[in-house]
Amino acid sequence: MASARLKLPQVLGIPIFVDLSWFFVAALIGWSLAAGVFPALLPGMPGPVYLWMAVAGTLGLFVCILLHELAHSVVARAFGMRINGITLFVFGGVAEIADEPGRPSHEFLVAIAGPVASGVIALACWAVSQPFPVLGGWPAAATTLAYLGQLNAYLALFNLVPAFPLDGGRVLRAALWRLRGDYAWATHVSAACGDLFGLFLIALGFWNTATGDVMGGLWGVVIGMFLRNAAASGYRDMQVRTVLGGMRVADIMTPDPIFVSPQAVVGDFLTRYVYRYHHRSFPVVWDGRVMGVVGIPQVATLTPDEWAATPVRDIMVPCEEPDFIAVDAGVVDALRRLGEAGRHRLWVLDHGRLVGVLAARDLVVLASLATDLPALARHGGTAPSARDASSPPHFTGPNPLDIHT
Fold first, then answer.
1. Do β-strands 5-11 and 14-19 pair in parallel, antiparallel, or remain unpaired?
2. Is 321 a catalytic residue?
3. CA distances from residue 341 to 337, 345, 352 in whole angstroms, order as listed
4. How far, in Å, CA of 364 to CA of 323, rounded?
5. Which of 69, 96, 100, 107 is catalytic?
6. Which residues contact 316 (CB under 8 A, 6 or more apart)?
7. Which of 400, 397, 402, 332 is nearest to 95 (CA)?
8. Domains of the chain, with CATH numbers?
9. How far is CA 167 from each of CA 32, 99, 122, rounded to the nearest angstrom?
10. Dihedral sign of CA atoms 25, 29, 30, 31 in order
11. Is 68 part of any known ligand binding site?
């Protein structure tokens, strides 16, 4: 996810992040639980008790959504898929799985793992919250657990709705993929179901708003819009993978990029390269190997009097592994690499030597052209290979605040 987020300790080797939007929702949930939900479920308790119940309920929901996403991630990793991390955000949570499943059965098992985990948590919370001796003298704890059980039950049921990108939509895609052997068509149908479900939530939200449930209604509208956008994004991603899946970086790169020697002085660099070729940055290459990048931002750290005596190597920015891609890599893999690394270009290497450059803007244009070929994408047939796939995240949501209060 692209927005600001806080990194937490890893769980089972999987990076965990909390988007800043989650804290807004957490505050809203806590207020709702302390001011309305728990006083209605357990009347007559002191105010501080409701406050602690609200804190426990909010943290419990955080853990439950995290466990839901961990279930997706653990199963996906068992099938060899890469996990970029788990992020909790305003609408719930996402497991950022970097690859699409290679088989319908893998798609089904990864998708169903989340709702199963939520269902197990719901049953566990319900069982422990019953008036057993362990909680018999703690009605506040029992009520909080019972409520968390209810939330997890609703979370499991909501995510089983057959509408992409919800888990049920992925289950539907797995079934359709197995039925016809056509991954692209299955994605098209499940994404269309997601779009229709999003429209239903929007209409229901407007109805609820008109009938007096303003908060719940607005939340439903926002969730519906989010689901429609996510379904459309998932379908576009599939189009790009299908149309561009057979293309290699060598097919679209700009070969033999202009490079600078590390021994060149800055004054010559400006005259012979910047003013002549009008690029803002250039690779610094020695013996075919990329050492770094130099451009206007680095030159700006010097005074004009220093240009004639300062070699480029003194101001260049060293390159890192995310700056490079192999010449035989797939175009879809390049798109994924650019997105994950936040780069605007990749240096293309052949056995460690610079042979080309791949600009993000060129890939964006190419991806846009791919989405203009819906017929080709729909009849693309099989799923993308594990090497070239880049999956939209598994979505757990929406946050059940206004569904249950």
1. antiparallel
2. no
3. 6, 10, 20
4. 17
5. 69
6. 262, 284, 291, 292, 293, 294, 298
7. 397
8. 5-245+387-404 (no CATH), 249-360 (3.10.580.10)
9. 27, 16, 17
10. positive
11. yes
Please report, in angstroms and rounded to a whole number, the separation of the first and last CA atoms in the chain: 29
Please say whether the beta carbons of 28 and 401 come within 8 A.
yes
344 is in an annotated binding site: no
* 405 residues of the chain, pLDDT tens digit each: 445 778 888 888 888 888 887 888 888 888 888 888 888 888 888 888 889 889 998 889 888 989 999 999 999 999 888 888 888 887 777 888 877 788 899 999 999 999 999 999 999 988 887 765 445 557 888 888 888 999 999 989 999 999 888 899 999 999 999 998 888 888 889 999 999 999 999 999 899 888 888 777 888 888 889 888 888 887 777 777 766 767 788 888 889 888 999 999 999 999 999 988 888 889 999 988 889 999 889 999 999 899 998 999 999 999 888 888 888 888 877 877 777 666 788 889 988 888 888 887 777 777 676 666 554 444 444 444 433 334 445 555 544 333 332
CA–CA gap between residue 93 and residue 345 (Å, rounded): 30
Count of beta carbons in the 10 Å neighbourhood of residue 33: 26
Written as one letter, the residue type at 105 is S
Say what the pTM is. Answer: 0.69
- Cα separation, 78 vs 90, whole angstroms: 28
**Which residues have C-beta within 8 Å of that of residue 278, sequence separation ≥ 6?**
none
Please say whether the beta carbons of 339 and 364 come within 8 A: no
Phi then psi dihedrals of residue 63, to 5 deg: -65, -40
- Give the contacts of 22 (CB within 8 A, at least 6 positions apart): 62, 88, 89, 90
Q: How far is CA 140 from CA 130, 144, 260, in A?
A: 12, 6, 69
167 known ligand binder: yes
Strand 324-326 and strand 345-350: the pairing is parallel
Q: Is 393 exposed, middle or buried (0-12, 13-18, 19+ CB in 10 A)?
A: buried
Chain-centroid distance of CA 11 in Å reads 17
8 Å CB contact between 364 and 387: no
Distance, C-alpha 104 to centroid of its chain:
21
